[in-house]
Amino acid sequence: MLSGRSKALLKFELRNLEELKHLPKAELDQKLQDYGASWKTKPMHHQKVGLLAGLMYPGVYFIYDPGLGKSKLVLDILLTRRDQVRKCLVLVPGVSNIGAWLDEIKIHAPGLSAIGFYEMSKDEKRAAIEDDHDVVIMTYMGWISLLGMRSKKGRREFDFDHMDSIEKLFQMVVWDEADALKSKASLSFRAAERLSQHARYRYALSGIPFGKNPADLWSQFYLLDFGEALGGSLTLFRKAFCKAKFNPWSGGFDYKFKQRCAKELSTRIKHTAVLFSEGECFELPETIGGLVSPSFMIRSVPFPVENKRYYEEVIKELRGSKDKRLINNIYIQLRQIAAGFIPIVDNNVRVNLFFDTNPKMEALLGLLAEIPEQHKVLVFNEFRVSGKLICDRLSKARYSNVRIYSETPNKIETLQDFKTNPETRILVGSRSVCYGLNLQVANHLIVFESPDSVIKRTQLEHRIRRFGQTRTSFIYDVVVKDSIDAKILASLRDGKSLVEQLLSSDDPLSVLATA
């Protein structure tokens, strides 16, 4: 039996943002013009729909499949609202996402000043956050550490006076991969709740806002509309949409979503959220990212201090060198350091030294978390050590995977398992997968280490971009900032091989400085 408040929730008059998706093109463009919409790069239809919703309402959730340009969408909102927004805060789940946002700003909003918080002390963050930057980007945990914590009766509490002074700096907040806020009891949500009360404009982004439990939506939506869609409290949501069952082991109640409420929940979500799947975006190019597209889709990560120190020591050996064997070896070592390891000789035995911090691996896992579970993924690596490291980390994170490389036994059976077994989601492959394989069962390719050859790179991308592919293909490159990774991609875009440029140059060091 529903309580009076639960019945009132279900009777709340709702808007339907789905209607914006069906506006005639001319009417959509006219409405955007009426709202003064502004952008630097031309938006696609699904981005225009989201832009209009974001200009019409102060809190909107953009639930778009990965690769559909959610960050560009909110940057267009920010460009349009420059008169009302002096400073925007973007919160992301991992450090690797910071680099991605900085790259997007350079492309879609180059006039904005942006700062990403990487390896900074709390005092450095506090000083930088007050500087004259239009956009501040940091992780959820970085934001919590910045706010300050103190213990109160065994419970961690925020320093509220300090929080107020920081939160009031921001008129707009963007929660990227907002499913990180799904737990009402988490510090991340508690910090976000206060932030939402200060921010005039609030936007959330996600491709997969919940897993098996739709109740995870409540906290995310509450930050945007303060309970209009899903109720003013989690208790109210549960009473309206869930069935409670006492759990004798925990001494509390377990809540199971009532499937008969699925239609009602879907209707209520559209009060605050705009939803697009890749299948709806017919004007998308055949492939987003990669060498076959106008631009790479790069997931940038910072260069950890220790890793970069090794990198800088190795690169010095290139100065004035004409020894092609040495140049080739140094080129390989630079790539390996960027990948998170370096070979050393210990007591005449060659071993691999693994760095404590490997942001490329973090970025890989972050991308996989963003890709819908039903989509198969090809992960490409150049080095055998990287392939093993990737598979070990995937298995540890409970991602079902198989690997194809030169020493893989039963390659045909392994490929068939990837293609036909719905439980096998990821294929980790090296050069063995570049030629002759039909892998269009996957429509996502993550390039952990790119081939240096234009031909091999093109062949790699055509493993998923080929006849029989029925979905938009997404190609991601994981790149360590200020490393050889970005220089390889720049050379590929110019139709060249970086290693060949190094080997043919009188000054290899200058090639790396200008590539």
Question: Could you characterize the architecture of this molecule?
Answer:
The termini are far apart. The strands form five sheets. A seven-stranded parallel sheet has the order 3-4-2-7-8-1-11, with helices on both faces. Strands 12, 13, 16, 17, 18, 19 and 20 form a seven-stranded parallel sheet that branches. It is of the alpha/beta class. The relative contact order is 0.10. The longest helix is centred in the middle third of the chain and has 16 residues, at 324-339. It folds into two domains: 12-209 and 216-229 and 272-284, Tandem AAA-ATPase domain (Rossmann fold), CATH 3.40.50; 288-303 and 355-514, 3-Layer(aba) Sandwich (Rossmann fold). It has 21 helices and 20 strands. The chain is globular and about 75 Å long. The model has no long low-confidence stretch (mean pLDDT 88).
SSE topology:
Elements: H1 4-11, H2 25-34, H3 45-56, E1 59-64, H4 70-80, E2 88-92, H5 95-108, E3 114-116, H6 122-129, E4 135-139, H7 140-147, E5 149-152, E6 155-158, H8 160-167, E7 172-176, H9 187-198, E8 201-206, H10 217-225, H11 234-241, E9 242-247, E10 252-257, H12 262-269, E11 273-276, E12 287-288, E13 297-301, H13 305-315, H14 324-339, E14 341-346, E15 349-354, H15 359-370, E16 376-380, H16 384-396, E17 401-404, H17 411-420, E18 426-429, E19 442-447, H18 454-461, E20 473-480, H19 484-493, H20 498-504, H21 508-514
Parallel strand pairs: 1-8, 1-11, 2-4, 2-7, 3-4, 7-8, 12-20, 13-20, 16-18, 16-19, 17-18, 19-20
Antiparallel strand pairs: 5-6, 9-10, 14-15
